[in-house]
Amino acid sequence: MEVKVVQNILKANDSVARVNRARFDAAGVLAVNFIGSPGSGKTTVLEQTVRTLGPLHRLGCIEGDPYTTRDAERIGHLGVPVVQINTRGGCHLEAAMITQAADDLDLTGMEILLIENVGNLLCPSQYDLGEHFSVVVLSVTEGADKPEKYPVAFQRAGAVIINKTDLLHATDVNLDEVTATIRRFNPDAPVFPLSARTGEGVAPWCSWLAGRVKQSAGSC
Amino acid sequence: MEVKVVQNILKANDSVARVNRARFDAAGVLAVNFIGSPGSGKTTVLEQTVRTLGPLHRLGCIEGDPYTTRDAERIGHLGVPVVQINTRGGCHLEAAMITQAADDLDLTGMEILLIENVGNLLCPSQYDLGEHFSVVVLSVTEGADKPEKYPVAFQRAGAVIINKTDLLHATDVNLDEVTATIRRFNPDAPVFPLSARTGEGVAPWCSWLAGRVKQSAGSC
Question: What is the ipTM score, two decimals?
Answer without folding.
Answer: 0.88
